[in-house]
Write a structure and sequence with these properties.
With about 250 residues, this protein is mainly beta. It has one domain: Beta Barrel (Lipocalin), CATH 2.40.128. The protein is built from 2 helices and 14 strands. Strands 1-3-4-8-9-10-11-12-13-14 form a 10-stranded antiparallel beta barrel. Strand 6 and strand 7 form a beta hairpin.
Length: about 250
């Protein structure tokens, strides 16, 4: 018996005859998006403690990738002006390489040239409010604020030697979203969550095209970049991740 993946079945059902192809923005108020794709780390520099540790590059240690990443986003349009959003975005990369020099990290010293297992976690959970300040036939612009909860952990190990640093923090971000509707079934969406301060910065930027398969289902593809970091006495870490993404959107 040949098993067809559930995603293929769902896409087929999206295109079932008789579905209304009305513009997705004018149909149902809840939009659930499942996103995934390969991610590459273009930069990932670490020093722990930030004031006395040895700086090293996770890119040099385990490579740029690609690694797997994904997220779940839920939007609720309360009315034409007000909306709320929730995001679950796990991100964890692992690999094995060798350090270029003796490295002091999180209270342990790791020897250069030996196999070193590394794990880097930067998962985020978000709750956002957005206000629509422009709503026209071709354009919709929104702005608001995001409560960003980060769940971060960096771990190195060589044989029985292991050291890690973890942190859970809450950061406020500014959100801006621009949507362009070039045709009935298409929309192009550019979004950014970001904020900068003397202690560090955070930026999540994406641009995607969405095609309405039906009045309740859409397919998207595009690009996402996550950049930022922190610099203090406890930890120094600045990273830049780039991802090609595909998504399935469901509207209720």
């Amino acid at each position: 018996m040949i098993r067809i993946p559930w995603l293929v079945l769902l896409l087929i059902s999206c295109e079932s005859p008789g579905s209304s192809l009305s513009a997705i923005r004018d149909t149902k108020p809840v939009f659930l998006e499942l996103e995934g794709g390969p991610v590459w780390q273009s930069r990932n520099d670490v020093r722990n403690p930030g004031s006395t540790g040895t700086e090293f590059s996770m890119v040099d240690l385990i490579g740029k990738g690609a690694y797997a990443a994904g997220r779940i986003t839920a939007d609720w349009d309360i009315d034409q002006r007000h909306s709320v959003r929730g995001v679950i975005a796990p991100l964890e990369i692992v690999g094995t390489g060798s350090l270029k020099r003796s490295t002091s990290f999180a209270g342990a010293t790791f020897t250069a040239g030996l196999p070193t297992h590394a794990s880097y976690k930067f998962s985020s959970y978000r709750l956002a409010y957005r206000y629509t300040f422009l709503h026209q036939e071709r354009w919709r612009l929104r702005a608001g604020g995001t409560i960003f909860v980060r769940d971060a952990k960096i771990e190195l190990s060589q044989g029985s030697l292991q050291a890690s640093d973890s942190n859970i923090g809450v950061v406020p971000l500014i959100n801006f979203t621009a949507e362009f509707f070039p045709a009935k079934k298409w929309r192009i969406v550019a979004e950014v969550d970001g904020l900068a301060a003397p202690q560090g910065r955070a930026l999540d930027l994406s641009i995607k095209s969405h095609y309405d398969l039906s009045d309740w289902c859409s397919l998207g593809f595009g690009y996402r970049a996550i950049e930022g970091g922190v610099d203090n006495d406890e930890v120094y870490n600045f990273a830049w991740f780039q991802s090609l993404v595909v998504s399935l959107g469901l509207r209720f």
